[in-house]
Amino acid sequence: MDKLNIERLYDCLDENAMRLYEHDKTPYLDGVVQTCDAILYDTFDEKMDVELLNLIKKSISKIKKISFQKEEIRKTMQLCILKGLKHLKQSNEKMTPDTIGLLVSYFIQRFFSDKPLVLFDPLVGTGNLITCVANQIPQVCTLVGCDNDLSQYQLARSMFSMMEYSDQVYLQDTLTFENLSADVLLTDFSYQSPDEEPYFPYEVVLHHLNNVAENGLMVLLIYNDFFEAFKAGEFRKQLLETCHILGLIKLPDTLFSGISKSILLLQKRNPSEEAKPFLLADVPSFEDQEAFTRAIAQINQWFDNQNHEGDK
């Protein structure tokens, strides 16, 4: 990545979002989306003040001839979203840490060969996780996302479009989304008390089994009390009717405030097929290089011992 390119694109998105906010109190994140649309499609509000319009057009013209890498765009969008969340006094926990995205991309690369992949996030949020993963893997990726929050949907759509991943983001209840055959389903669940019913993460997993291709991979970022929810036994029974539980990787506590998380790996397979050995790993702090290297070596060994490729 070129840090200067990130600065240039950030300056454009940020200064125009601030102009829109200062002119008519357009929310900062809405201003970011409007600026992205202007960059992509040359679309502007016809009722916009002429002086403001000229300032925005001049700002955009400065970056039009620059060829940005996908990761430069994602990093820039991430910075803008973090600033917008701060303005709204909302937690940045809505943004999955990049270190987790890197781990998820690593698992996908080890699981699949170089065939094109369809990646699907049924709770896509701002789109940061799925685009982080797609930017790290060599396979050609088609990205699909779903979210029922208008603001997050708009940000994810902008994120996808700015990186030329098309705009297959859908504004709808994820439990109504159907007719997809994804190679990889990946998502980061928000916290819900395991005492609450119904337990939404269970509903999401069971519903979207129908949107995962045979032998497809599910990579779920779950809270560590995930299997303590009411009806966990019933959920596990239904899950095992169509899936193999491949592994559980506990993530460093330092990545989170409050309850820690783990990565749950599932594969949609015929339950009559022989189950593979279960991967149980504890990833230490990324700052402890020696311990982290040992953990990755353990995960590598598990993949090396597998006799399958995800696309067979």
Top keywords for this entry?
312 residues; alpha/beta; DNA polymerase, domain 1; Rossmann fold; 2 domains; eight-stranded mixed sheet; disordered C terminus
Biggest beta-sheet profile: 8 strands, mixed
Share of β-strand residues = 15-25%
What is the helix tally? 10
Adjacency order of strands in the biggest sheet: 3-2-1-4-5-7-6-8
Please report the distance between the alpha carbons of the first and last residues.
34 Å
What is the assigned CATH homologous superfamily of the largest domain? Vaccinia Virus protein VP39
Estimate nothing, just give the exact number of structural domains.
2
- Might you state the CATH topology name of the largest domain? Rossmann fold
Note poorly predicted spans.
Answer: 308-312
Kindly provide the radius of gyration, computed on alpha-carbon positions and rounded to a whole number of angstroms. 21 Å
CATH class of the largest domain: Alpha Beta
Average of per-residue pLDDT values? 92
Q: What proportion of the residues is helical, as a percent range?
A: 40-55%
User: Which overall shape is indicated by the principal axes computed on the Cα atoms?
Assistant: globular
CATH architecture of the largest domain: 3-Layer(aba) Sandwich
**What is the H/E order?**
HHHHHEHEHEEHEHEEEH
Briefly note the structural class of the backbone.
Answer: alpha/beta
Q: Tally the beta strands.
A: 8
